[in-house]
Structure formats: C-alpha cells, structure tokens
Amino acid sequence: MKARVTFTAEDLLNNYLFVASKSDLATRRRLKVKLLLVAGCLIGAAGSFIAHDSYTMWGFIIAGILFLLFYQFLQKVIYKQNYKKHAEDRFKALKDVVFDYDITNESISTKSSIGDVVIKTSQIESITETGSYFFIKLKSQDTITLPKHGFDYNLLSAQLNNIAAANSIAVTEELNWRWK
C-alpha cells in the first residue's frame, strides 16, 4: 500500500501526547511532582504549627488539599502546552515536507526530501489504533505515527492487521483515547 502524507502540527502534538501517555517514566514523574507539592505543603503546615501560626498552617493545609485534588488537571494543561511548543518547533521544519509511505508485509518505507527510512516489520512491537491515528511502536521504543487522514483507512487497517498476524503483534484499539 502506498500513500502520500503531509503532517500537521496537530499530528505532531498528538504523537507527543500519545507517547507520553504510554510512558511509565512520564507517568511516574507527573505523580512525583504532585506528591512533592503536597509534601511541601504538609512540611509548611508542620512548621507553622510549631511556630504557633495557625493562619499559615491552615493555609498550607488547604493548599495541600487543593494540590491533591486539582493539580492533575492543571498538570495536564501544563504538559500539553509544553508538548505543543515542541510540536510547533518541529512543525516549522516539516511544514511543506511530503512523506511517501510504502507499507508492505516485510517493511514500512518512508521517503521525503529529508531522507529515506526503511523499517522491517519484524521490528514492530505493537500497533495501537486511536480515533485519528495508528501508532506503531518499535522495539527500539520509537513510535511511527500514521494519521488516518493521509491514508485509505480500510487499506491501511487491513495492511496493518496482515503485518500483525504475520509477526504475532498485538493490535490494540483505543478509539476513545485522549490526553489525560
């Protein structure tokens, strides 16, 4: 199967967000920051208690509770803005680049003005389908993003299922995936 794809900034952003959402390291880091903020508030409350400053103590306690309850939502927005900046920077270099894909049972080939890449299908670890993309995770921990808007969906889905069957690769459907 062959296709020509031009990536959008949104495609690049969704690639970053998907990879981060599946990364154990990123998930642990987000939890660690949240717990450190709550611990800092508890230490501040304990220090205020020792100093007999009840107003500051209650301020730290309330701040700790608010961090515990709401920081994950704020953190989601902060991380998305950070990834959006990276995606926009990368998109400047890829704005007018057309990628020619040739997907066979043996390899996934990509040709563009930037360079050529050939990846053997035996190097694929998993395939995940979301509402708008196919994400192909490689054994090297890299991820190939195939936006559905650039391919004939039925042909691409059939080809990826053939590759998965031939190489004993799990195909996961997360059609409702979103950044959390």
Give a concise summary:
With 180 residues, this protein is α+β, with helices and mostly antiparallel strands.
Q: What class would the helix/strand composition place it in?
A: alpha+beta
Ends distance: 33 Å
The CATH architecture of the largest domain can be given as Roll
The ordered H/E elements are: EHHHEEEEEEHE
Key features?
alpha+beta, PH-domain like, 54% helix, four-stranded antiparallel beta sheet, 8 strands, 180 residues, four-stranded mixed beta sheet, elongated
Descriptive report:
It comes from Mucilaginibacter galii. The chain crosses the membrane at residues 31-51, 57-74. InterPro entries: YcxB-like_C. Residues 103-159 form the YcxB-like C-terminal domain. This is YcxB-like C-terminal domain-containing protein. The protein has 180 residues and is an alpha+beta fold. The chain has two domains: 2-8 and 96-174, Pleckstrin-homology domain (PH domain)/Phosphotyrosine-binding domain (PTB) (PH-domain like, Roll), CATH 2.30.29; 11-94, no CATH class. It is built from four helices and eight strands. The strands form two sheets. A four-stranded antiparallel beta sheet has the order 1-2-3-4, with no helix packed on it. Strands 7-6-5-8 form a four-stranded mixed beta sheet. A hairpin with a 2-residue loop joins strand 5 and strand 6 (133-138). Helix 2 packs antiparallel against helix 3. The longest helix is centred in the middle third of the chain and has 41 residues, at 54-94. The two termini are 33 Å apart. The mean pLDDT is 93.
